[in-house]
Amino acid sequence: MVLEEIAGLIGGAHVLSRDELAGRPRDFWTKEPTRARALVRPGNVAEVSRVLALCNARGQKVIPEGGRTNLVQGTQAAGDEILLSLERLNGIADPDARSATVMAEAGATIQRIQERAEVAGLRFGLDFGARGSASLGGALAMNAGGLQALRYGTARSQVAGLEAVLSDGTVVSHLTPFTKDNTGYDLKQFFIGSEGTLGVITRAVLHLHPLPAGADTALLAFDDFGAAAALLGALRAQLAGTLSSFEIMWGEFFDFNTGEQGVGTAPLARGHAYYVICEAEGFDPSFDRQRFETLIASAFERGGARDAVVAQSERERREIWNIRENFDAEIRLFGTLVDYDLSLPIDAMESFAEAVRRELQAKAPQNRGLHIMGHLGDGNLHLTTGVPDPEMKPLIDELVYGLIAAHGGAISAEHGIGITKKRFLRHSRSPEELALMRRLKTTLDPANILNPGKVIDVTGPVTLEGRVAQ
Ligand SMILES: Cc1cc2nc3c(=O)[nH]c(=O)nc-3n(C[C@H](O)[C@H](O)[C@H](O)COP(=O)(O)OP(=O)(O)OC[C@H]3O[C@@H](n4cnc5c(N)ncnc54)[C@H](O)[C@@H]3O)c2cc1C
Questions:
Q1: Does ligand 1 come within 6 angstroms of the Cβ of 327?
Q2: Is 463 a residue whose pLDDT tops 70?
Q3: 322: helix, coil or strand?
Q4: Which residues touch 380 (CB under 8 Å, ≥6 apart)?
Q5: Is 455 in the pocket of ligand 1 (CB under 6 A)?
Q6: Residue 72 alpha carbon to ligand 1 centre in Å
Q7: Which residue lies with its CA nearest to atom 38 of ligand 1?
């Protein structure tokens, strides 16, 4: 019945039935079929509003979806939900060079927004591997981070204005292009990072930045974590805001990924404890290159770097990044991947990594190794291991998240919570914070129709003390 009503609102051609969806993979990561009541594709904001108002009135659960590339089962349906795809809302306006902003609809991919900005001589500061499939709405709903967060911030920092539709169909629109807007509560931040649980994002005005004229990239080897971290401070101070990326790889990851099973070639000798990729993108290529090489040389001569290479061509630059970004070999090695996206203070990273290695050996000695790498400059590490028996994953989850809490870290740096990490949110958020999150959810979505079961469970109104009010 509700599907016929939705077809009446947006046209039958834009309502895909359960059977039509059955052959479609649930998300980017699995061959499991989609199990949902239907997928609906409204064509504009007014249609999104009408569909949500109707679903709210009927108690119909709705899961917003973009490119389905999230890593936390964020768009997973149990069976009776309706998937609400924003794919038809994919317009991108001409960038406004004066305010350095662009307005885009939620279904536009990150790559198309990047390309549109570049034509205007500007850069959109959000970038990650899934750029070709991930949508703006999904990336904002996940508060995605990625490869340039060190310079431009996460998705939260990219948004000047936002439009979202609440569960009852109310359109909340504040599409301003300003950097400064102190007109009361910053409502857009409720929706950014809320993983489709508080509203459906339909449009945003995005900040853009000057497009750099070139990139300088180096790979360095260290045997001392402190020396690698010190280089970050030096480059931040001396590269005048042009440092875009500062990535770290623990030796085990580097050795494997440059070995026969990986990319098969190592620009620097293997066997060091840490490897760093740093990249600066400036506006004066010859001056930038000279300054960059001087800084890398001084890291080598006085800063504790054991080896270093600066890419001399785009091909060499790609070869360096491939070591960091090639996960195929890792997937083959580990089979059942057990991976983590974590934040923690840079000072705690070394002892955290050692503690994980120690406890993993003690509690899961059958593990196939521990690969650690990440965005050092953002305080974000990615850990991957593999175990022969998938049943062991909960044990390793408890081990890693327990240690992350003990080291003052967060259980999610950029991939969000979804279903995968919901159980562990208590490791990073206090009972008061969890209770406030529930209050926000029940206020904005009292019927709990929006992406239910993701991020936080809501069984009824919750008091600040964390009790479910009767
Ligand atoms: C190869 C690869 C590399 C990646 N690298 C990174 C990385 O470096 N950094 C990083 O942060 N992430 C990374 N990701 C994950 C990244 O968060 C997602 O790819 C992206 O942000 C999600 O966009 P999407 O359109 O696919 O959203 P989906 O996966 O479709 O949805 C994600 C969540 O947002 C909700 N949602 C979707 N659209 C809307 C909307 N319009 N309004 C409200 N809620 C909505 C969904 O309900 C879901 O909860 C990577 C993923 C892949 C596959």
A1: no
A2: no
A3: helix
A4: 145, 149, 341, 342, 343, 374, 413, 414
A5: no
A6: 9
A7: 138
- Hey, what are 6's tokens? 């939705």
pLDDT of residue 452 exceeding 60, the answer is yes
The mean of the pLDDT values for the chain is 94
Length of the chain as a residue count: 470
**pLDDT (0 to 100) of residue 336:** 73
Tokens (6 digits) for 390? 């998938």
- In the predicted structure, residue 100 carries a pLDDT above the cut 60: yes
Query: What separation in Å is there between the alpha carbon of 133 and the centre of ligand 1?
Result: 9
Closest CA to 178 of 107, 293, 98: 98
> For a pocket test of ligand 1, which of 27, 30, 40, 65 has the largest count of ligand atoms closer than 8 A to its C-beta?
65
Q: How many CB atoms lie within 10 A of CB 292?
A: 24
Task: Place 466 in a pLDDT band, splitting at 50, 70 and 90.
Answer: very low
For the chain, domains (ranges, CATH) are: 2-85 (3.30.43.10), 101-210 (3.30.465.10), 214-325 (3.30.70.2190), 336-421 (3.30.70.2740)
DSSP class of residue 382? E
Strands ordered across the beta sheet of 62-65? 15-17, 38-40, 82-85, 62-65
Whole-angstrom CA distances from 185 to 181, 188, 344 are 10, 9, 29
Candidate ranges 22-31, 89-98, 335-344, 457-466; pick with highest mean pLDDT? 89-98
Per-residue pLDDT averaged across 275-289, rounded? Answer: 97
Q: What share of the chain is helix, strand, coil (3-state, %, to 5)?
A: 35, 25, 40
